[in-house]
Amino acid sequence: MTKPLTLAVVGHTNVGKTSLLRTLTRDVGFGEVSHRPSTTRHVEGARLSVDGEPLLELYDTPGLEDAIALLDYLERLDRPGERLDGPARVARFLDGSEARQRFEQEAKVLRQLLASDAGLYVIDAREPVLAKYRDELSVLSSCGKPLLPVLNFVSSPQHREPEWRDALARLGLHALVRFDSVAPPEDGERRLYESLALLLEHSRDALQRLLNDQEAQREARKRSALRLIAELLIDCAACRRSVASEKTVEQQAINQLRDAVRQREQRCVEALLKLYGFRSNDAAASDLPLLDGRWGNDLFNPETLKQLGVRVGSGVAAGAAAGAGVDLMVGGLTLGAAALAGAIAGGALQTARSYGSRLLGKLKGQRELTVDDSVLRLLALRQRQLLHALNARGHAAVDSIKVATPEDKTWREGKLPEALKKARAYPQWSSLNPHPKLSQAERQAQIEALAEQI
Ligand SMILES: Nc1nc2c(ncn2[C@@H]2O[C@H](COP(=O)(O)OP(=O)(O)OP(=O)(O)O)[C@@H](O)[C@H]2O)c(=O)[nH]1
Ligand SMILES: [Mg+2]
Predict the structure, then answer these.
(1) pLDDT by residue (tens digit) across 240-284?
(2) SS3 400
(3) 242, 253, 240, 237: which is closest to 361 by C-alpha?
C-alpha cells in the first residue's frame, strides 16, 4: 500500500478553507464553519479512501492573519553573511521561540505544509489583491511545496477572478482552479484533482482512481435517488382508500389521506437528503413550494399547482379520466363510486382480482378515495427539482435549499408514465394502503421503469 497523498488547505482567515474540506469530503459535519475569522484553531485532517485504501489526506489549518509581520520576521532570521533559502528559513523559524508565542497559529500552518505533498491555497475571490495576500503567498512558498490556488466565492457577482489570475501569474503561480465550495461547478472536483496531478506527477494514478470512484458514486447516488422518487409516485398512484358514504366520515378520510401523502413526500425528501449526505433540516422553509418549514404543507393547495404550472381541471382525476361516476373532487383527491371507479380507472379485471370478490362485495355502499394525477405531477416536479438542487449543492452550504420553478414542460402536462397508470390498479403496491405487498416483482419492475422516465 502506498502512502496517501497529503494536502494542506491553507490561506487567509475566513476565506472558506474548512468549507472547502466539507465539500471535498462531502461531510457537512467536518470542523467548524463561521462567518467570524479565526474559527479553526487547530490542524484537523480527513481521509478519502477507495476500496479501503487511503488515497488522499486533506488537512484543514488555521487561517493566516498577520503574514506581513511574519514575512518581515522571516527575512530577519538570516545571520550576517548568511543567505538561507525558504525551507531553511522556515525551519529556523519553527525551531525558535516565536513559533510558540507570537506566531503560534502561523507555525501550525507552516508545519503542516512542510509535512504535506502540496498546499491548496484558498482565496476569497471577492477580495482585492492586497499586499497582505502577496506576503502570505511569499511565506507559504518558502516551504518549497507546490501550491495550487483555489478561487472560492466565484459564484458571487463581485468576484475579481481576472485580477487574481493576473496577480498569481506574477508570483509564478500559473495553474489555478475555480471551486466555489457552496455551489461547486459540476466538474469542479475533476478539475481540481487534474490540476493537482500536473503538479504532482507521482500522484497521478491515485488521483485518477479517486476521480473514477467519485464518478461511480455519483452515478449510483443518482440511480438510488430516482428510484426513491419513483417509489413515492407509485405509492401515491396506487393509494386507494374506501370510505363509507357519509359526510363526516368522508371528510375525515380525506384529511387522513392528505396527511398520509404529505408525510410520504416528506419521507422521500428526508431519504434524498440522507442519500446526498445533507441534514434533514437542510431543506427547510423558503419560498414556495417549501412553506412553514415543512416540505409538504402546501401539496394540496391549488395555488401550488398553478405556480408550478401543473394543469388542473377536468379529466385529471383517474376516475374521471376513465369515465367513471366521479361525483366529488376534493382538491387533489378524488372521491368516486367505490370499486366501480377504482376498477375502471385501473382496468377492471386486475382490480377485481386484487381486491378479491369478497372484498368487492363489501365495498358496495362505499366510496373510494384516490390521489389525483395533478398531485402526482406536482410530487414528481418537486422531487426532481430537489434532486437537481442536491446535485449542485456543496456540503459547505449553510442556507436552506431553494427550489426554483422548472423551465421545462416535463411532468407538467402530457400523458403520465404507463407505470403510474398501471399502479392505479394495484392497491397492494402502495405502502399507504393496508396490507401492502411491496416486494412484488412487478412493482419493482414498474419502479425501475418509472425511475428511467423521471
Ligand atoms: N457564499 C459562499 N460562502 C462561503 C463559501 N466558502 C465559505 N463561505 C462562508 O465563509 C465563511 C467562512 O468560511 P470558513 O470555511 O469557516 O472559512 P475558514 O477559511 O475555514 O476560516 P478560519 O478557520 O476562521 O480561518 C462562512 O460563513 C462560510 O459559510 C463560498 O464558496 N460561497
Ligand atoms: Mg476554518
Answers:
(1) 888 877 778 888 888 888 888 888 988 998 899 999 999 877 664
(2) coil
(3) 242
Give the Cα separation of 414 and 363 in Å (integer): 33
SS3 call for 14: coil
CA of 19 to the centre of ligand 2 (A): 7
Instruction: Read off the C-alpha cell for 424.
Output: 392505479
pTM of structure? 0.84
CATH number of 5-199: 3.40.50.300
pLDDT tens profile 291-346: 333 444 456 666 666 665 555 543 333 333 333 333 344 556 666 554 444 444 44
Closest of 86, 93, 123, 124 to residue 108, by C-alpha: 93
Residues of the chain with CATH 3.40.50.300: 5-199
Give the residue, out of 13, 17, 24, 33, with the most ligand 1 atoms within 8 A of its beta carbon, to mutate for a pocket test.
33
Query: What's the confidence (pLDDT) of residue 371?
Result: 87
C-alpha cell at 131: 499586499
Picking from 399, 266, 277, 260, the residue whose alpha carbon sits closest to that of residue 333 is 260
Q: Is 333 in the pocket of ligand 1 (CB under 6 A)?
A: no
- What distance in Å separates the CA atoms of residue 389 and residue 261, rounded to the nearest whole number? 22
Query: Among 9, 18, 19, which is best to mutate for testing ligand 1, by the most ligand atoms less than 8 A from CB?
Result: 19
CA of 34 to the centre of ligand 1 (A): 6
Nearest Cα neighbor of 189 from 174, 203, 179 is: 179
The share of the chain scoring above pLDDT 70, in percent, equals 80
State the chain's mean pLDDT as an integer. Answer: 84
